[in-house]
Amino acid sequence: MLPRPDYARLLPLYLAQALATGAATVSTMLASLVMAQLGQEPLSGLPSTLQSVAGAVSAALFGALMLRRGRKLGLGGAFVLGAAGAFLGFAGAKTGLTPAFLAGALLLGAAQGGFQQARYAAAESVPARVRGLALGVLMLMSVFGSVLMHLFGPQLAQLGHSLQTSVEVTGWLAAAGLLLVSAALIGFWQPAGPQALEGPAPAAPAQPAGWRHTLRQPGVAGAVVAVAVSQTVMVALMSLTPLRAHHLGLGHGPVSELVTGHIAGMFAFGLLTGPLIDRLGLRFGFASGAALLVLAAATSWPATTLGCCSACSRLGWGGIWSR
């Protein structure tokens, strides 16, 4: 188990990531419904595509920033960027400007490329033997933001009514607020120094290794492919499932429960999968996660298996991303 001081020190990081991940994931899942409301249902998958591409590009930029200036500054900047993107998305959707909504989705995706690196900050803050557990706790905390959005669904609906817009659009405004709270919380986080970990700190390389050198390291290329494929499959299924549920006649309440359940499945089992992968190894996590994602894709269309699709996609993603 993690020592008690580590939990106390990591709490602001965990809370900030919980709110940010929940807010951003809910916004991503609702984006397909927003596009349908804007009269652009044939392009309902475009926001999630833009977010994935922007996140992939920005991850390297935020990573370089964090190497130079530290995790704290990089994560704080990512949260602020995400808040700006979510607000722009809200404003674009409310005024019926699809390009503005897509621009907001792009900025929110770019921000995710930064604040998703909080998992590395958590892993760097604990001894190697419990890193899976630390990441599992971080993933479990990420459910909190989604549950918060779900619990305040009636209030969001009232706010949307007063703003003369839908609850799905109002969700983007709520996401902007939660991301600003995350930016404030990260200011209270104190990163661990090398003395807090077991053993001597690893020596820094004389110069940063290039991406070709990095990919030639044992296990790196396979891990990159596994993470990329799992993210692609999960985002596609995650973003289109609410629209599919809407087509089946489900209202906002059941769709909100579906979204919350999906995010809970993605992150809540991290407390189990993290220690399990610590014990059984990365290959077990990759293989089991891939099998579950294949099953999710196979059950994505029939209405009777939509729940199975959602469960398998979130569990498969969690197995691959828990280390």
UniProtKB/TrEMBL annotation:
Top-level taxon of origin: Bacteria
Stretches assigned to coiled coil: none
Keyword vocabulary terms for this entry: Membrane, Transmembrane, Transmembrane helix
Membrane-spanning intervals of the chain: 12-36, 48-67, 74-93, 99-118, 130-152, 172-189, 220-238, 258-277, 284-303
Protein name: MFS transporter
SUPFAM superfamilies xrefs: MFS general substrate transporter
InterPro entries per record: MFS, MFS_trans_sf
